[in-house]
From TrEMBL:
It comes from the Eukaryota. This is Carnitine O-palmitoyltransferase 1, brain isoform isoform X2. It is found in: Membrane. The chain crosses the membrane at residues 101-123. Keywords: Acyltransferase, Fatty acid metabolism, Lipid metabolism, Membrane, Transferase, Transmembrane, Transmembrane helix. Its main location: membrane. Residues 172-749 form the Choline/carnitine acyltransferase domain. The gene is Cpt1c. It is a multi-pass membrane protein.
Amino acid sequence: MAEAQQASSLLSSDGAEVELTSPVWQEIYLSGLRSWKRHLWRVWNDFLTGVLPASPLSWLFLFSAIQLAWFLQLDPSLGLMEKIKELLPDWGGQHYQLRGLLAAALFASCLWGALIFTLHVALRLLLSHHGWLLEPHGTMSSPTKTWLALVRIFSGRHPRLFSFQRALPRQPVPTPQESVRKYLESVRPVLGDDAFDRAAALASDFLRLQAPRLQRYLRLKSWCASNYVSDWWEEFVYLRSRGSLLVNSNYYLMDFLYVTPTPLQAARAGNAAHALLLYRHLLNQQEIPPTLLMGMRPLCSAQFERIFNTTRVPGLEKDYLRHVQDSRHVAVLHRGRFFRVGTHFSNDLLSPRALEQQFQQILDDPSPACPLEEHLAALTAAPRSMWAQARESVKTHAATALEAVEGAAFFVSLDSEPAGLTREDPAASLDAYAHALLAGRGDDRWFDKSFTLIVFSNGKLGLSVEHSWADCPVSGHMWEFTLATDCFQLGYAADGHCKGQPDPTLPQPQRLQWDLPEQLQPSISLALRGAKILSGNIDCHVFPFPHFGKNFIKSCHVSSDSFIQLVLQLAHFRDRGQFCLTYESAMTRLFLEGRTETVRCCTREACHFVRAMEDKEKTDQQRLALFRVAMDKHRALLKAAMSGQGTDRHLFALYIMSRFLHMPSPFLTQVQSQQWPLSTSQIPVQQVHMFDIHNYPDYVSSGGGFGPASDHGYGIAYIFTGENMITFHISSKKSSTETDSQRLGRHIEDALLDVATLFQTGQHLKSRFRALGGNLGYRHGFLSNKPVDPKVPTNSTNF
């Protein structure tokens, strides 16, 4: 993902450091100003839900109780209301009762505000506790149970999406000594003795010379801004990156793996678009429950604010995110032609059948694309400075059409080709499906939009997501809702169409007109050529591992994420014959406006385990003991990252601060210029209750993937599909002679079995594997035997 490619955003193409000319005091002031603007924007939400665990009705109850006590000749204010009455104007001795009501209202408001403030402080103190993260896997101590009970009490009964925002603690700033120590520990397995000694010497000089001053300024920024690193992370890793968004800053999410609820393209687009708009409505009404770890610990919801109506606008030096409060249309691309489709009619949201009708009219429209319109979208895949220059010309000559696209709720691409799993060639078809979602043809996506809904000609779905506005768990949450709503709530008629009847009174989709000058043709051609090169260079490989999943790993009493990460270390070592820096994304949404942190998975403990697996003289008992040590180390790193004690984001913020202060640091430059040959991420399943995996085991999300973080590296995403399968998404570059996505996939399959057989409950797996002839997954026809297009369940299950 783009976050694993931060060096390309911070260093120029020739490796020189980019100078930042703004005064550091101005930058700190602007960070604080941006934070306060976001606070003020949520004023109405704060009134409705920011007083959690109380509500506006609680004020009315308190005021009524005070009035009742006053009627019973009791004074709960201990004389304060009389003092307040004396301060109020007497209006000539009239309206005595009105003065009493005003005094009671003022006293009730002050008391209510004091109580709410006390509850907020108490909840923030409770949420600042992270001891529960450090407990052994699968256990919960009595103090943690007590802490969870208190969190539940202070969280109120019905929190809304943004209810906890005021109570979330700020992300702490680690000490430079601790961050440097962890960094040196992480690079020791991949550096030779001489290289490590040089790195240690640079680190020592940094701690002695630059670190104290940089840390002081960074702490000052942490006091002014909501989060000391997230605004810089968004700006410098994403918005200042001048490379193409294609592959570098987008990722994809897949449809169901084995089922396509309807083969009708327009019908599937209608249901999916309607489900997305329903999600937006729930989001606007804050009726989406906040994400809770362990069912009680809330995560920050700030990233949900920009899911819809958001576009990344290119600039010469940096981009910016444009978000409009409301949009009542979507932009549609089909065969190089752009359309505007309204989402409301007579102030009501269009039904799925009405949206299908609109999409079908676009599919049936025989008009050809204009010469400059056909490949116009390729400009969004061009280097950002080039697109910024071309966009000025587009805006001058076709401002209305450009506004219709950039101001849309989201973008829809109606592809003319089918996609998804096929019985004839399941392996190649899945790989082609992933490639179509990640890269496409280069001119069939508007990469600037927050996300693009992709609907293929056979009814298969997918999502292409721009990364700067939020991270995968947020878009994944929306995508789970969309898939579940599409199948289990909306459904389809027997003929495959959306339920309901067409509406002949609906206006037709509006064809967008691009009156573009011929001078734009060279830019479009150049952008298209570059996009096709990027697209053609990506090697995608998707495979489900059907022999075991989360259930088996749980039965081994180990962490599922740590299990997979150690498997990936073993597979990569077998693939490349060496260890490398490994990036795993961990969320920091335990804190206000937190985003991600890096877990450096290639530890000394992991290397010892991998070497033991390759040493024929080692016994399984010895290997298992080393596995448990390596797993404990990984879990400790993951928990430190989640609790704000990671390494990379702190060193990144110190580096940015050094650029503002014009204090070059060779150590920080070396840290930021490092490559990540192995970039990994787990796609979380967050709403299991929406899917009935027991009655409909094939109706589960198959996850998604992203591009590699380096020219000679791999990008690996994985998702626990149901309880007994793991789906992997691997990417690499075809131009590299060192990588091969299919080859690494085979190594991952072998490593999964080899690690599983270390446990007694998994020793039967290898014998079953041999009985199948040494083949797994679709390599033995597993996928080709699955039903590809079963009927959609007609009744709601656990939705």
